[in-house]
Amino acid sequence: MMGYHALIIDDEAGNREFLATHIKQLCPSISTVKETSSAAEGLFVVMNNDIDVVFLDIEMPGGSGFDFLNQVGEVNFHIIFVTAFDSYALKAIKYSALDYLLKPVDPLELVQAVEKLHRNQSEKERLDLLKYNLSNREDRRIALPTQDEVVFVLISNIIRLEAEANYTRIFIDKNPPLLLSGNLGHFERFLHDIRFYRTHQSHLINKDHIRKYIKTEGGYFLMSDGSQVPVARLKKEEVKRLFM
Fold first, then answer.
1. Tens digit of pLDDT for each residue in 74-100?
2. Predicted pLDDT of residue 120
3. Mean predicted confidence (pLDDT) in 100-118
4. How far apart are CA 143 and CA 121, in angstroms?
5. Is 128 helix (H, G, I), strand (E, B) or coil?
């Protein structure tokens, strides 16, 4: 069976060399690795070659990785973003459940990203979601991968999240809850902005869905779906400062 054909698009030669060397050493499923130093060169390569996966730098002079995606049209290859910046753009990538690597690239994370290629899942919906999130900062969407599917929801419609061992149950307005792999801390890092607040070791809430704070019975929030979310004892003073 033939291996995958990869393309690295990165303006820094040292980064391309590091990535290409480790791909050849650690990723036997990739048989060929091409390199280009700009989005324009990368566009020419994918238009004239069979490419299965593109390792795409985001910040490049003369055209970003997003410019490349806008120009390429129909994407029929996998994309693994590579960036040195934990920026808004990276958060949009995370929300879209697309693969990414942070520079300096960890070889183990590289291997894990390449191992996902065999799933052969179409990335069109996730790329459409990425473009949406890059242009809509106020009403973003997130891709939530369950065991059987990927569900796309408005972040503003997420009411609360509740820990269940190594899983997290996500409660969404007017929809059944979803059980996702990953602890609550994992999702808190995704949703760490002004909307979400960790009330308890096991609970993360969307502040837009708070209806009341009940001070009796230990203290809890009454949410828009009627649920009662407890407040940890050590959080009570903080809750008073933030909400009262």
1. 888 999 999 987 777 888 898 998 999
2. 56
3. 92
4. 14
5. helix
Query: Please, which residues bridge with residue 220 across strands?
Result: 214, 230
Residues 6+ apart with CB under 8 A from 1: none
* 8 Å CB contact between 234 and 242: no
CATH number of this structure's domain 4-134, picked from the four choices 3.30.1360.40, 3.40.50.2300, 3.40.50.300, 3.40.50.1100? 3.40.50.2300
By CB neighbour count within 10 A (0-12 exposed, 13-18 middle, 19+ buried), where does 133 fall? buried
Cα distances from 193 to residues 16, 108, 184, in angstroms, run 34, 29, 15
Contact predicate 58/82, CB 8 Å? yes
Q: Tell me if 3 sits within 8 A of 51, measured CB to CB.
A: no
Least Cα distance to 122 among 74, 66, 55, 76 occurs for 76
Task: Report how far Cα 243 is from the mean position of its chain's Cα atoms.
Answer: 29
Please say whether the structural domain 141-243 has been given the CATH code 2.60.40.150.
no
Q: What is the DSSP string of 151-215?
A: EEEEGGGEEEEEEETTEEEEEETTEEEEEEES-HHHHHHHTTTTTEEEEETTEEEEGGGEEEEE-
| pTM of this prediction exceeds 0.90 | no
* pLDDT, tens only, 142-161: 999 888 888 999 999 999 99
User: Can you give the pLDDT at residue 194?
Assistant: 73
